[in-house]
């Protein structure tokens, strides 16, 4: 039987991490993995966002047209079972009537998520918002690269402490008062 190492502090029981997850999510020597995944995901978001920001149907004179078309396609998938009826109700009552603001939020959100991931600034937060958009697209019945991007985003969220080490987070997070400290081990 595997013995579970634990430390008792007051009434709390703290279970140590296993060596692999500790290395992946807390050790800066794994930061190169997160750099590669972060830049790949950031580039994907940035290119998608730039395509939308420069499109008249997303942020121009006809803003909202593209998102209305996308939502119409999602609503057509309800009968097939690809889109949940509660999500379709949300799309019909909230998103479609507010297509223009949602259009700008999606387009600029993709750009900001992409930039945040590429430069490694507020990496965990950027990955969270990227995952939220991926989940929204998945719930609307669009598979494409969304499952892969969603999984990468989840891993980056888990690795938030070291995912931006080769980026601006290395300096920004301590300045913002992130409640962790760097410990050096041989």
How would you sum up this structure, described in words?
The protein has 186 residues and is mainly alpha-helical. It has one domain. A two-stranded antiparallel ribbon has the order 1-2. Helix 6 packs across helix 7. The protein is elongated, with a radius of gyration of 20 Å. The chain starts with 5 loop residues before the first strand and ends in an 11-residue tail after the last helix. The mean pLDDT is 92.
What's the structural blueprint in terms of helices and strands?
Layout: E1 6-9, E2 12-15, H1 19-26, H2 31-53, H3 56-59, H4 65-76, H5 85-95, H6 99-119, H7 123-139, H8 146-158, H9 160-163, H10 169-175
Antiparallel strand pairs: 1-2
Any idea how many domains?
Answer: 1
Please describe the biggest sheet, giving its number of strands, its sense, and whether it closes into a barrel.
2 strands, antiparallel
Q: Tell me the helix content.
A: 55-70%
Q: What Rg, in angstroms, do the CA atoms define?
A: 20 Å
Q: Given the structure, what is the number of helices?
A: 10
Structure classification: mainly alpha
Strand tally is 2
List keywords for this structure.
186 residues, elongated, two-stranded antiparallel ribbon, mainly alpha
